[in-house]
């Protein structure tokens, strides 16, 4: 997909209009900030409603008007009330209205007199990344990997640094190296709490192992990587099982494979070693503007993988009361999966 | 309200059960993380569904089970599928089901065979803070105020620091001083972009004025403060108008007053000086576990203020192409509003 960046919004919009038309839908009401950004270049800071149809418009809160007018490729109008929006929909003769699956119930309720259909047309469109999007994800990944090396976790461990200080310094380094923000709150989990997949950085001196799950954003696009710094034989033994699952899952990723098949490859390996019950989440997920996008690499997701999807592969083994190990990389789907970046899996 | 901290969840639950019963509702389905935390002490990191009824339970994702069991006062079960949840609801003979206004459409859709009512019963309950909650907000505020003083914005301006560096250092100081996190991404907006109420910190040397809107969390509870560091006569003139609106709005806050009346006080003053069109947001909002809670101090909100509400008061004047000034404090509603903290309004 060689689409010029300045035409990318029109390209996305036209693809979605075609899909709406195929399903006999007059318009889709878009409230998700990243979907609005994807379609217009404008990232809301409070609330906004994009009405996607032949002549799309965005209803924007008064406090964001200046920002929206400076950044949106779609016409902007000031939001006044849901009642006025409903009037507008009627004037535009919108009857069959698609809504997004994450629209909130209170908004859903305001539009219930329309013929509503929940549609994932935009998240489906976002599954396949353009060259421009892939470059931004790769850039985010480069910044993140460089920053983790600069942080030097083993030196921090020797110096008895605190979990939260390390998390802050990593965030600082990523921003210094060109990121706009973290992709999510960095997980810096050491010792016992590494068995909690989403532990929050504590006011505790680094114990072992040290699990670091982190990423940054570059021009809106996320990276997501996990490394676990290991120190004992038991940690090494578990880590080698996780790494085998990680590598084999990546080998199984190619255009045409199903997401659930990839999950099964990782899960079967961990199960063979007797740790199936300790692998308590799915093997991975897509990412882009959001840190979690469709598809997920889970037993339930039957999505057929396609070229230019970007996926994480992140098997883990969590031993409650002992420790947890997770290793995560991002890959680009092609005939074979291409690893994004070259950060060693064992540091 | 002198409720012991260890009974606080039961107290909240009983209040809400009474209200559900009055409305002939069998249960409420709660997916909002902070509402689940408010009712159980467990803060989800992925997804969770609390079913609030006589014997409440929480459906938790497998990866969060260890965390949930360690922290929740309510029984935990492993989430398997929406279908299993629907079966459970039927076994429990739930027919009239309340859902929250921010429940997403895809979940709403799974439960549409029940008699659904959108209810704000929990957010209404959360409007009035307990003594324990007020103490946590005050502690968050103390940490935040102390940290802004430590940062010394005027010194940063003299040293030609970057907006994002200042934002990071402020976040670092708040964490060092005892906060668990920022309440929201700090706004550090200088020069032209101070006219954007929600500007994101840039890789730019601090210009003038410097608008800092920031806060931190202590045991889950948020603070929210804005100071604008002014440097010119014009900035001083606008700042004095904003401060007058700020002070008079606080004077108007008392139990029995309506939220919209307080907004009108601030808006009328700014309008009298000719800047009505430049005050492009509401005067304030409640806060607690969330940075924005009900009520809002806006022309549309007719909520009658009650003792032990905590509100922000944050009028602003935004001159597109020039600069913006906002001054924000938190107050506790009582017979008279009590200012939280003693950070000078002009620094």
TrEMBL record, chains A, B:
GO terms for molecular function: aminopeptidase activity; metal ion binding. InterPro entries: Creatin/AminoP/Spt16_N, Creatinase/aminopeptidase-like, Creatinase_N, Pept_M24, Peptidase_M24B, Peptidase_M24B_aminopep-P_CS. Residues 13-113 form the Creatinase N-terminal domain. It comes from the Archaea. Keywords: Aminopeptidase, Hydrolase, Metal-binding, Protease. Residues 135-334 form the Peptidase M24 domain. Belongs to the peptidase M24B family. This is Xaa-Pro aminopeptidase. It comes from Methanobrevibacter olleyae.
